[in-house]
């Protein structure tokens, strides 16, 4: 949805602020993503960012020599790389055109709006994951919370089958849109270190 383009920059700014608060001593901290500690989650973000950017530009995917698990992208200078990658994603997905038509994420053809929602979700959900791992909070705008909730519900079944989301977590009837979004992705809003 091209109207979600306006949500990208504020979500990215919040995400980047969380990245700047991560020190090497926190790399081994657990995150709400059971398979990732902080270092592995940062590696995940650094690995997939260029793929998302290429999809937004409707360009060929990056040429990579290894898969995510074998990549070692969190070395000296990782924060600078992550901030530049975040800025490029904002440049691409902060414009409505990136959300229109079809694109490819790797070899999979899909509506560009789905990739845009993935980028917004990366900033919001993985921003929350990292913030929780550090014992911090994240400020998610109500419009962004509603957008990632709608997207998480729409992609839920397929994402769970691909092990991208965990089993849905039941939330209270009076849960916020963001708490509902977290639950839809298999995250527990009450998760603590």
From TrEMBL:
Entry's Gene Ontology molecular function annotations: metal ion binding
Residue span, Mycothiol-dependent maleylpyruvate isomerase metal-binding domain: 9-131
Signal sequence, renumbered to the chain: none
Top-level taxonomic group: Bacteria
Name used for this protein in its record: TIGR03086 family protein
Organism: Amycolatopsis thailandensis
Source lineage: Bacteria, Bacillati, Actinomycetota, Actinomycetes, Pseudonocardiales
């Amino acid at each position: 949805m091209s109207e979600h383009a306006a949500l990208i920059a504020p979500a990215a700014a919040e995400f980047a602020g969380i990245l700047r608060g991560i020190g090497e001593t926190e790399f081994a901290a657990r995150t709400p993503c059971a398979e990732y500690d902080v270092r592995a989650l940062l590696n995940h973000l650094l690995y997939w960012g260029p793929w998302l950017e290429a999809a937004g530009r409707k360009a060929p995917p990056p040429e990579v020599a290894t898969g995510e698990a074998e990549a070692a992208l969190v070395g000296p200078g990782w924060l600078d790389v992550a901030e530049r990658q975040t800025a490029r994603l904002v440049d691409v997905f902060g414009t409505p055109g990136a959300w229109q038509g079809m694109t490819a994420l790797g070899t999979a053809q899909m509506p560009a709006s789905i990739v845009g929602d993935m980028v917004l979700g990366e900033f919001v959900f993985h921003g929350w994951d990292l913030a929780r791992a550090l014992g911090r909070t994240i400020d998610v705008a109500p419009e962004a919370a509603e957008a990632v909730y709608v997207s998480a519900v729409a992609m839920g079944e397929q994402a769970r089958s691909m092990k991208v989301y965990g089993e849905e977590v039941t939330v209270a009837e009076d849960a916020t849109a963001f708490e509902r979004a977290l639950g839809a992705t298999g995250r527990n809003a009450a998760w603590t270190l």
